[in-house]
Amino acid sequence: MRAANRGEQRPYAQLLQAITPVVRGIVRARGSGLGPEGCEDVVQEVLLTIHLKRQTWREDAPLRPWLYAVTRHKVIDAFRARGKRIDLPVDDFLEVLAAPPGPDPLAARDMDRVINELDPRAAQIVRAIGIDGESAADTGARLGMSEGAVRVALHRALKSLANLRERMIE
């Protein structure tokens, strides 16, 4: 590096050849989330920075810590430029991501939470008719209500659920 800073081309080319595998190893170790192309881009950025900033290296100091610092900062810059997203090809995870056929396992929990916002009798009616599949006549007989009263209560309960849903979306 001393010879390169004095303008000697051959030692500078030898330096770049010697440090490139070291830089690549550091970038791959610290930037594993960048992917192969991203890591290689960072290696090129590091080499360019070394070329442009090589005069900032103090000749009385070891080269390796300066090289590590430049590389580390370029890896951090790459992560910052990319933001908080992580790019992974979805095709690699198709088998893992595929949801098993059947009902949504969280739907019942969410439905119960919303139905519990209703008054207890309305909640019973919605569960009996809407979830359990009882008829209005059977539900009315069990709750001591007429079939017409059950239908009116069900209609009001469904309207309340719709209002609750609208408030949750807002």
UniProtKB/TrEMBL annotation:
Keywords: DNA-binding, Sigma factor, Transcription, Transcription regulation. Transmembrane segments: none annotated. Residues 20-84 form the RNA polymerase sigma-70 region domain. Residues 110-161 form the RNA polymerase sigma factor 70 region 4 type domain. Pfam families: Sigma70_r2, Sigma70_r4_2. Coiled coil: none annotated. GO terms for molecular function: DNA binding; sigma factor activity. InterPro entries: RNA_pol_sigma-70-like (IPR039425), RNA_pol_sigma-70_dom (IPR014284), RNA_pol_sigma70_r2 (IPR007627), RNA_pol_sigma70_r4_t2 (IPR013249), RNA_pol_sigma_r2 (IPR013325), RNA_pol_sigma_r3/r4-like (IPR013324), WH-like_DNA-bd_sf (IPR036388). It comes from the Bacteria. Gene3D superfamilies: 1.10.1740.10, Winged helix-like DNA-binding domain superfamily/Winged helix DNA-binding domain (1.10.10.10). GO terms for biological process: DNA-templated transcription initiation. PANTHER family: ECF RNA POLYMERASE SIGMA FACTOR SIGD, RNA POLYMERASE ECF-TYPE SIGMA FACTO. Belongs to the sigma-70 factor family. ECF subfamily. This is SigD protein. It comes from Pararhodobacter oceanensis. The lineage of its organism: Bacteria, Pseudomonadati, Pseudomonadota, Alphaproteobacteria, Rhodobacterales.
